[in-house]
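Reminder to self: tokens first, then the designed residues, so the page reads top to bottom the way the pipeline ran.
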């Protein structure tokens, strides 16, 4: 059975992905090469304009499919609260996140928030 690795990332505020996307992508490809199943979770700040989040999310989804990292990334608000209705179909909940065998958090600002919400994730 493959190990489920969840990558917590924040690339949606970089319109073209920039170099930071390559860092996360290399981790994902390394884990996939080791036989792991990858869950890519993008963290969403509620202050970001919704149309830009949607546009960036679809661009990222297409990009990740090109590299066969995952079928579709998930979205999670940085405060752990439900996402706006238009983004709900892409939402991932904290229980799903907690069920991963390994969570690699590239968005360290959220660490304390997630720990307090998830009860010590």
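Designed residues (121 positions):
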């Amino acid at each position: 059975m493959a190990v489920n690795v969840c990558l917590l990332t924040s690339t949606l505020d970089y319109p073209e992905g920039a170099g930071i996307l390559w860092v996360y992508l290399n981790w994902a490809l390394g884990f996939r090469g080791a036989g792991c199943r990858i869950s890519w979770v993008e963290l969403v700040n509620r202050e970001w304009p919704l149309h830009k989040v949607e546009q960036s999310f679809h661009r990222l989804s297409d990009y990740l499919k090109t590299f066969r990292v995952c079928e579709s990334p998930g979205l999670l608000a940085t405060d752990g609260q439900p996402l706006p209705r238009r983004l709900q179909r892409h939402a991932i909940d904290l229980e799903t996140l907690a069920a991963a065998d390994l969570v690699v958090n590239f968005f360290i600002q959220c660490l304390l928030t997630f720990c307090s919400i998830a009860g010590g994730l």
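The mean pLDDT is 83.
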